[in-house]
């Protein structure tokens, strides 16, 4: 079976390069190649001399060395580089899952995390995040109720797209315990790691904690460099590694050499890039807090724990789809309706990782005054 249309990506394809005020992007403010290379003296000559032959299929050794420094216990041979996180998701699903397997997926979710298992003939149970007193939350009893004898994988995403919810160490350890007891693989989509507002609450990569986990990371989100199309998985399980490496021969084979080089420079200088991105997020989040306080009658606001996105809800009777379309047509402001997540008709995703966020928010405010009050 072919996967159904990727609603979120199709929505972006329609508006991303035409709407002037993108207020739902899931990444942080990007950098130009010049800005990135300025972080490290001597890179221009090295980029100039770079050989444009095929690269190592598992990712260049120097890049893998840099990625391995992110983990506490993984070595370079346990890192497999991919073209973005999306290729790694596609590879994991195809290389590891079989028709008839049962898969539990945290929900709402980035569509490929549940659509691909479904397409491959797996049975998919959605483990739902629910809004509670202190924002979004996951109930572990509900995870246990989802378990079946044929459960092959639990797919989690923390920090989470679209809610910004982050699993606590305690909950993560319990999920691992459940997986270990039942011989279940964990795919942990950790593409928003390092954007926790309270850095003391950041958990280790799941692959550091569990021998049957695959941790997924990428340059796109926290570092704001999606144009590089460089992502990676880390796993201690040699069979999973080999199966994914072998599958990759049928997708990208190897990665772009300039992208691998630039990703290495960015990772070496991640401290500075992350600090800048967190500062942008912090400033914009303060604006959002004030905005939702002012319009408390119109919205439900669930403050995220991490990352540049959140998933508030309209309290009006009008559909979020309808409002989103009207908003982009009248004011050029793009927010993402929850229907893109197969979710409901009142939530929407807002993105606040960009420097020009305050201008977009002002336009949204104008729209509210003119149309929703
Ligand atoms: C949770 C999650 N996983 C994976 C991806 C795919 O990342 P990339 O575009 O870098 O392939 C995204 C992109 O939005 C995402 O939000």
Can you tell me about this structure?
It is built from 14 helices and 16 strands. The protein is an alpha/beta fold and about 375 residues long. It has two domains: about 5-30 and about 270-370, Aspartate Aminotransferase, domain 1, CATH 3.90.1150; about 50-270, Aspartate Aminotransferase, domain 2. β8, α9 (about 205-210) and β9 (about 215-220) form a beta-alpha-beta unit. The termini are far apart. The mean pLDDT is about 95. The protein binds pyridoxal-5'-phosphate (PLP).
CATH C-level category of the largest domain: Alpha Beta
Overall pLDDT metric: 97
Structural class, by secondary structure, is alpha/beta
Q: Name the ligand types.
A: pyridoxal-5'-phosphate
Concise summary:
This protein has helices at 7-15, 33-37, 43-49, 61-68, 84-96, 112-119, 140-146, 169-181, 206-209, 238-248, 257-268, 270-294, 320-331, 357-371; strands spanning 21-22, 79-82, 102-107, 123-128, 130-132, 135-137, 151-157, 185-189, 213-218, 231-235, 299-300, 309-310, 313-314, 333-334, 336-337, 348-351. By secondary structure, the protein is an alpha/beta fold.
């Amino acid at each position: 079976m072919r996967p159904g249309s990727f609603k979120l990506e199709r929505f972006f394809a329609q508006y991303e390069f035409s709407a002037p005020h993108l207020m739902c992007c899931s990444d942080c403010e990007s950098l130009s190649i010049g800005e990135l290379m300025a972080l490290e003296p001597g890179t221009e000559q090295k980029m100039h001399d770079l050989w444009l032959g095929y690269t190592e299929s598992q990712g260049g050794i120097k890049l893998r060395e840099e990625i391995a420094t992110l983990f506490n216990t993984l070595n370079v041979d346990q890192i497999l580089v991919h073209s973005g996180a999306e290729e790694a998701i596609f590879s994991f699903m195809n290389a590891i899952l079989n028709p008839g397997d049962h898969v539990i997926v945290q929900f709402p979710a980035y569509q490929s995390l549940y659509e691909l298992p479904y397409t491959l003939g797996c049975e998919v149970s959605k483990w739902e995040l629910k809004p509670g007193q202190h924002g979004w939350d996951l109930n572990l009893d509900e995870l246990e109720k989802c378990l079946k004898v044929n459960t092959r994988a639990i797919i989690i995403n923390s920090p989470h797209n679209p809610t910004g919810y982050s699993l606590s160490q305690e909950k993560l350890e319990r999920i691992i315990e459940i997986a270990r007891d039942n011989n279940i693989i964990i795919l942990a989509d950790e593409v928003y790691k390092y954007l926790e507002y309270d850095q003391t609450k950041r958990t280790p990569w799941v692959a550091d904690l569990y021998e049957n986990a695959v941790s997924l990371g990428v340059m796109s989100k926290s570092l704001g460099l999606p144009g590089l199309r460089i992502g990676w998985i880390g796993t201690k399980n040699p069979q999973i590694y080999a199966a994914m490496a072998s599958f990759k021969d049928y997708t990208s084979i190897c990665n772009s050499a300039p992208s691998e080089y630039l990703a290495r420079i960015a990772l070496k200088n991640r401290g500075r890039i992350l600090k800048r991105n967190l500062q942008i997020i912090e400033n914009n989040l303060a604006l959002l807090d004030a905005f939702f306080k002012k319009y408390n009658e119109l919205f439900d606001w669930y403050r995220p724990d991490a990352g540049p996105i959140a998933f508030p809800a309209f309290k009006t009777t009008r559909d979020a789809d309808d409002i989103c379309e009207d908003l982009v047509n009248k004011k050029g402001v793009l927010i993402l309706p929850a229907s893109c997540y197969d979710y409901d008709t009142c939530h929407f995703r807002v993105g606040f990782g960009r420097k020009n966020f305050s201008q977009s928010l002002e336009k949204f405010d104008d729209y509210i005054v003119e149309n929703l009050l």
